[in-house]
Amino acid sequence: YDGQADSNNAAIKLLNYYNQQHGLSSKTSLTMGKIKQYMLGMCDRRSRERNCRRYTSLGNVMFILQLGGPTNGQVRHIDNMVPNLQICLYMSSECPSTVVYAMDDGNGLPVTNATTLIDFWERQGKVVPEALKELLIRHGDTKLKTKHTKYLGWSTINLQLLCFGKLYQPVAYQLGLQTVPGTTLLAGGNEIHAGPPTKHSRMFAFAIGVPDTNDQNADDRLHDDDIGKNDGEVQYSPVLFHVDFCCLIF
């Protein structure tokens, strides 16, 4: 949904059909404006409860529909959306939620840069060649914009590991719920998640919560400048991330 009042817009047609089937008046009908207002209200609630920055606008607003079933679900992955939030508003009955994963740190630090990746490998009993250690530590913050690396879209190894590094870690546990219409999931921009296996059709509204640039402290501003503006178009599963990592190293 691009915000335009286009009668041919599929999302608008779906809402109009819903309102007609339920005999709703213009005052009580379900609209994109009301859905977006509700999503922003949930973002405000999260900000108040956590005493953190506010999210005051939405991006990539869309309806996601899966027709029929059963399906096997997605492979767990990360969509790079930091510093934005992921918002899922479940709309169908008996709708399984997105599956969210907690990762096992293995009694050490989570994988967020080259040093913690090396440490994680060694705690797993892996032999890490000295040449690889030296390369990762020396070039973890090297800008990767040469003709050989620019097509991967990596700014630096450490920044990629900051967002995607925990994909290397094993799963400690996973959480998925059977939801009712109106249930809302808000997740950070680099949480590991997956679309769930399903038995029936499933529908939810999705959007990205965008933070207020005027409601930042110095740390937020510095962090946002480092990572750039992300809309989730870059995503990795564990295998794909390691394949790109190996391509880059070699």
User: Percentage of helical residues?
Assistant: 25-40%
> Which strand order does the major sheet show?
1-10-3-8
Uncertain segments: none
What is the CA-based Rg, rounded? 21 Å
**How far from one another are the termini?**
42 Å
Show the helix and strand layout.
Blueprint lengths: L9 H12 L10 H19 L4 E12 L11 E2 L5 E6 L4 E2 L2 E5 L10 H10 L6 H10 L17 H8 L6 E5 L2 E2 L4 E4 L5 E2 L7 E10 L6 H10 L7 E2 L1 H12 L1
Antiparallel strand pairs: 1-10, 2-11, 3-8, 3-10, 4-7, 5-6, 5-9
Features:
single chain, 250 residues, alpha+beta, 4-stranded antiparallel β-sheet, 3-stranded antiparallel β-sheet, 32% helix
Describe this structure in words.
The protein has 250 residues and is α+β, with helices and mostly antiparallel strands. Helix content is 32%, strand content 21%. The chain contains seven helices and eleven strands. It has helices at 10-21, 32-50, 114-123, 130-139, 157-164, 218-227, 238-249; strands at residues 55-66, 78-79, 85-90, 95-96, 99-103, 171-175, 178-179, 184-187, 193-194, 202-211, 235-236. The chain has a four-stranded antiparallel β-sheet, with helices on one face. It has a three-stranded antiparallel β-sheet with strand order 6-5-9, with no helix packed on it. A two-stranded antiparallel sheet has the order 2-11. It is elongated, with a radius of gyration of 21 Å.
